[in-house]
Amino acid sequence: MMQAYRTEGNYRSAARLSPAELRAAMANREILQATALAFDTQRQLRFEIGGVRAVMPFAQCADGAANGTVRDIAVLTRVGRPTCFVIEALDTDENGQPFYRLSRALAQQMCKADYLDTLQPGDILPCTVTHIEPFGAFCDVGCGISALLPIDCMSVSRISSPADRVSVGQQILCAVKNRDVQGRFVLTIRELLGTWEENAAGFTVGETVVGIVRSVEEYGTFIEIAPNLAGLAESCTDLVPGQAVSVYIKNILPEKMKIKLVIVNHALSQRHRFELKYFITEGHLDHWVYSTPESPKRIETDFAAAACNPA
């Protein structure tokens, strides 16, 4: 049976399997998961599977742990969280008690060889956001393997923080942008969130909608009305990026890719974040154009070029 590779937290729970099912999973090298209960003084993760103790030595806690490229902090933060693994063996300890030996490193090596290394720039894959930094969000792309989604790849419209677009634990879709010099994936999501025309089609001149202030300039205020669409309103120095407002849509100009807005309510009381709306959910992209045919301004992504010229 072909192994299905998923993000950590989305595998079969070993705790719910019978001894016979666990033996079958071990024989088939099936990836399972369980909650790590401790990282002990012997530098191993401890689990309990069906009433039987299970251990994961540090070298098996992540691909790269054996050669020192993985730090303790990356392992001990697994405690209390679902952690994927392959059962390597059922052994007995010095007291004759059975215990399972587990390997997350092997699960990650299998995921890389059979799944991730087959992906090309432009391929779309499911990810889970694991943590957020000012420059981007780190995502699990399979078995806890991390990839970076940079802030400038989160939308065409400008955002101040990755938290404006995603949250920790959120399951999202991304496309592979390229690989960095260490061979790690760099991800992008903006190409999946629609072109200017696709987003603008959801709005009509004369209606009033919720917007989020993205930047305040001398010549006007940029306000996002969808994750990949922003318009320009009058300059208003008492507004700050991230603030929710209501705006009247005065004009929609496809030939200039511009939306003219008028701020109606300057201070909505609640925070607001747009849900991600995907216009593409599967498959592969070679080339993506955000711009309208009439616009002289070109915003596009050439995934095929990235595939030919890896970083």
Question: Mind explaining what this structure looks like?
Answer:
The protein folds into three domains: 96 residues, OB fold (Dihydrolipoamide Acetyltransferase, E2P) (Beta Barrel), CATH 2.40.50; 106 residues, OB fold (Dihydrolipoamide Acetyltransferase, E2P) (Beta Barrel); 70 residues, OB fold (Dihydrolipoamide Acetyltransferase, E2P) (Beta Barrel), CATH 2.40.50.140. By secondary structure, the protein is mostly beta strands. The strands form four sheets. Strands 1-2-6-7-5-4-3 form a seven-stranded mixed sheet. It has a five-stranded antiparallel sheet with strand order 10-9-8-11-12. A five-stranded antiparallel sheet has the order 15-14-13-16-17. The two termini are 34 Å apart. Helix content is 12%, strand content 37%. The chain is built from five helices and 19 strands. The chain is elongated, with a radius of gyration of 24 Å.
Quick summary of this structure?
The protein has helices at residues 19-28, 72-76, 104-114, 196-200, 303-308; strands at residues 12-13, 32-35, 38-39, 44-49, 52-57, 82-92, 98-103, 124-133, 136-140, 146-150, 171-179, 185-188, 208-217, 220-226, 229-233, 244-253, 258-265, 287-289, 300-302. The protein is mainly β and 311 residues long. Strand 8 (124-133) and strand 9 (136-140) form a beta hairpin.
